[in-house]
Amino acid sequence: MENNNNMRSSLIPSYLYSTSLTTKNKRTNNNGFMIESPSEPFGKIEMYSPKFYAACTVGGILSCGLTHMAVTPLDLVKCNMQIDPAKYKSISSGFGVLLKEQGPKGFFRGWVPTLLGYSAQGACKFGFYEFFKKYYSDLAGPENAAKYKTLIYLAGSASAEVIADVALCPMEAVKVRVQTQPGFAKGLSDGLPKFVKAEGALGLYKGIVPLWGRQIPYTMMKFASFETIVEKLYKYAIPKPKDQCSKSLQLGVSFAGGYVAGVLCAIVSHPADNLVSFLNNAKGATVGDAVKKLGWWGLFTRGLPLRIVMIGTLTGAQWGIYDAFKVFVGLPTTGGAAPAALPAVAPAPLA
C-alpha cells in the first residue's frame, strides 16, 4: 500500500493538465489520469506519449498559422505605421493608403510567408511548451512543481520560444520586406531569393535577437498569464467546477483567457516588435538607428493600439483553436482548477 501511495504522490501535478470528466467516454491512462475521449479519431492518445506531443504540435500549427494569416491586413498596416509613420498616420488612414495604392489584394500581401512562418513557429511553441512543462515539473518534483507552478510555465514557454523563433525568423524577414517595400517582391517565391541575394543567407537571421526580445517575453506572458487567468476564471467567475462545465463553455473560457493574455503580451513585447520591423525593412540598419529614428516614446507606443487589438484577438483565437483541436482528438483543455485528489488506495484484505 505504501508503494502505491508513493507512486501516486510522485505523479506530475494534475493541475497542469486538468480535464473535464463525465460519466461516459472516460478512461484512465497508465499514469492514472482520467481523460475524456469523445471521439478519438486518431486512436487513444496517452498523456506525454509521442502521439500526445504530435497532437499538440498539430494543434499549434493550426492555431498560429491560420490566425496570423487571417490578420494579415492588420499586420500589414501595423508594420507600415512602424516603418513610415509620416505616410501611415493612423489605423484608418493606413488602410485608406493601402487600398488606394494597392487595391483590395494589397491587404494580403505577404500572406504565404506569414502562413508558413507562423505555422512552423506554432508547431514548436505549443509542442515544446507541453514537453518542457512536464520536463521541468519532473525535475522540480511534485511539491516544488505545485509551489512554483508559475515559474514552470515561464521557463517552459521561454525554452519553447527560443526554438520556435529559429523556425520563424527567415519567413518573418521576408514577410516584413514584402509588406513594407512596395515593388520589392510579390510574395515568398520571388521575395526569398531576392532577399538572400541582397543580404546573404545569414541575413535571414539578422533580426533573430530582436525577435527573441519580442517573442520570448510575449510567449512567457502568453502562457503563464493564460494558465493563471483560466485558473482564476474557473475559481471565481464560473459558478461550477470545470469538471462540470460543457466543452463549449470550456472553450469559451480558453478564448477569454487567451484574449486577456494577448493584451498583456502586446504591451510587453511591443518595443521589440518595432525593432524587428525596422531592422528587417532597412539594409544594414542597427538597433541604435531604430532608437534614433523612432525615439524611446515611439519605440514603446507607435502602432500599439492596433497591435493590442490584433494580438488580443489573435491570442484568444489561438487558445480557442488549440484547445478545440485537443478536445477533438480526445485530450483535455489547457489550464483550469485542479481536479479532486486521487482517492487513497484501499488496503488489500487479509487472507
Automatic annotation (TrEMBL):
UniProt xrefs under Pfam families: Mito_carr (PF00153)
**Protein's organism:** Coptis chinensis
Question: What InterPro entries does the record point to?
Answer: MCP_dom_sf, MCP_transmembrane, SLC25A3/Pic2/Mir1-like
Family the UniProt entry places it in:
Belongs to the mitochondrial carrier (TC 2.A.29) family.
Give the highest taxon in the source lineage: Eukaryota
**What is this protein's record name?**
Uncharacterized protein
Solcar repeat placement: 51-135, 148-232
Annotated membrane-spanning segments are none
Q: Where, subcellularly, is it found?
A: Mitochondrion inner membrane
Q: Which GO terms describe its biological process?
A: mitochondrial phosphate ion transmembrane transport; response to osmotic stress
Function recorded in the entry? Transport of phosphate groups from the cytosol to the mitochondrial matrix. Mediates salt stress tolerance through an ATP-dependent pathway and via modulation of the gibberellin metabolism.
**Lipid bilayer topology:** Multi-pass membrane protein
GO MF term list: mRNA binding; phosphate transmembrane transporter activity
Which Gene Ontology CC terms are recorded?
mitochondrial inner membrane
Keywords for this entry?
Membrane, Mitochondrion, Mitochondrion inner membrane, Repeat, Transit peptide, Transmembrane, Transmembrane helix, Transport
